[in-house]
Automatic annotation (TrEMBL):
Keywords in alphabetical order: Hydrolase, Metal-binding, Multifunctional enzyme, NADP, Oxidoreductase, Riboflavin biosynthesis, Zinc
Organism: Staphylococcus borealis
EC number annotated for this UniProt entry: 3.5.4.26, 1.1.1.193
Similarity field: In the N-terminal section; belongs to the cytidine and deoxycytidylate deaminase family. In the C-terminal section; belongs to the HTP reductase family.
GO MF terms held by the record: 5-amino-6-(5-phosphoribosylamino)uracil reductase activity; diaminohydroxyphosphoribosylaminopyrimidine deaminase activity
Signal peptide: none
Cofactor(s) annotated in UniProt: Zn(2+)
Protein's job: Converts 2,5-diamino-6-(ribosylamino)-4(3h)-pyrimidinone 5'-phosphate into 5-amino-6-(ribosylamino)-2,4(1h,3h)-pyrimidinedione 5'-phosphate.
The name this protein goes by in its record: Riboflavin biosynthesis protein RibD
Free-text cofactor note: Binds 1 zinc ion.
PROSITE patterns reported for this sequence: CYT_DCMP_DEAMINASES_1, CYT_DCMP_DEAMINASES_2
Gene behind the chain: ribD
Enzymatic reactions: 2,5-diamino-6-hydroxy-4-(5-phosphoribosylamino)-pyrimidine + H2O + H(+) = 5-amino-6-(5-phospho-D-ribosylamino)uracil + NH4(+); 5-amino-6-(5-phospho-D-ribitylamino)uracil + NADP(+) = 5-amino-6-(5-phospho-D-ribosylamino)uracil + NADPH + H(+)
């Protein structure tokens, strides 16, 4: 892989989680072996990465090459097609790492007709960035990561509800970064009442996710610190049409029936492209029995809690035959100060 392409992918990775329902993209313009322009898509509705890089390069772009992590767009959205901008600046070559299967027209043909050489340089690191994006766009649902912190025997809390510091402080720091790379974090009202969390990003200049709370009944204790915190908005999904917001930072979203798919579709329409689920056993188990989860992250603490299992992170009413058990594949493992982080995807 060209190191110019590597730079473009790194730029895309840096803005992951801040582009809403748009993909994170990086671009690098090169002329005579020298970088003359850099760009990344910084937020939904803003200039695309190619435009950012070309604007920086200016006249130096003419006759140069642009390296892009994703095939340049060919449609009018909130901004004009990037292929038009590339043609306008007189580039001689376009190199991209991933084909955009959601485009309405063939970008390669448009560019080649304009006399621009096009090279598709497939790169797995870039493909990993967009795999869930393509699925999310086609289904109009957010990319979903579920995170759970548990003991070796799968408990999120003791039978008495004690859950603080099952995993260690280094895991907490890793979770803060996870929140930073997602548009929103979703939980249940039961977790708010039990743990009184804030779901903020406690890292320097970190991006705080929108906090989404599920509560069919709308029996909300607005004195909990999440509702008092103004770091980011709080959205409450409820079937209680009489529930009122205590302040402008809390939005009440009323649905006649709070089905998961309807909630997720509404979340996507509101601009949430990457959603993190941090919840208790009830909400966690409900999601794990669906096809909505793209990625599961489990943090295991090296301790055994025991008890009845009422706070086991995955619970079902039915006993599942082993032949029908949901299968995962392990993508990566990492030891975080004696706690194990495991990233999995459904097979």
């Amino acid at each position: 892989m060209s190191y110019f392409m590597n730079y473009a992918i790194q730029l895309a990775q840096m803005v992951e989680g801040q582009t809403g329902v748009n993909p994170p993209v990086g671009a690098v313009v090169v002329k005579n072996g020298r970088i003359v322009g850099l760009g990344a898509h910084l937020k939904q509705g803003d200039k695309h990465a190619e435009v950012q890089a070309l604007d920086m390069a200016g006249e130096n772009a003419k006759g140069g090459t642009i390296y892009i992590s994703l095939e340049p767009c060919t449609h009018f959205g909130s901004t004009p097609p990037c292929v038009n901008k590339i043609i306008e600046f007189g580039l001689s070559k376009v190199v991209y790492a991933v084909k955009d299967t959601t485009l309405p027209s063939e970008g390669d043909a448009i560019l080649e007709q304009a006399g621009i050489e096009v090279e598709y340089q497939y790169t797995e690191d870039a493909a990993a960035l967009y795999r869930d994006f393509f699925k999310a766009k086609s289904e109009q649902l957010p990319e979903i990561t579920m995170k759970v912190s548990v003991s070796l025997d799968g408990k999120q809390a003791t039978d008495m509800g004690q859950s603080k510091w099952i995993t260690n402080s280094d895991v907490k720091q890793d979770v803060y970064h996870l929140r930073h790379t997602h548009d929103a974090v979703l939980t249940g009202n039961g977790t708010i009442n039990a743990d009184n969390p804030q779901y903020t990003t406690r890292i320097p200049n970190g991006k705080h996710p929108i906090r989404i709370v599920l509560s069919r009944s709308g029996n909300i204790d607005f004195t909990k610190q999440l509702f008092q915190d103004s770091s980011s908005e709080v959205w409450i999904y409820t079937e209680n049409e009489h529930l009122k917001s205590p302040n402008a930072n809390v939005k009440i979203i009323y649905l006649t029936e709070c089905k998961l798919k309807d909630i997720l579709k509404d979340i996507y329409k509101r601009g949430i492209g990457k959603l993190l689920i941090e919840a208790g056993p009830r909400v966690t188990s409900e999601f794990l029995q669906t096809h909505f989860i793209d990625q599961l992250i489990i943090y295991y603490a090296p301790k055994i809690i025991g008890g009845s299992g009422k706070n086991q992170f995955y619970q079902t009413n039915d006993v599942i035959d082993l032949n029908h058990a949901t299968q995962f594949e392990i993508i990566s493992t990492e030891l975080i100060n004696q706690n194990l982080k495991m990233i999995l995807r459904k097979k």
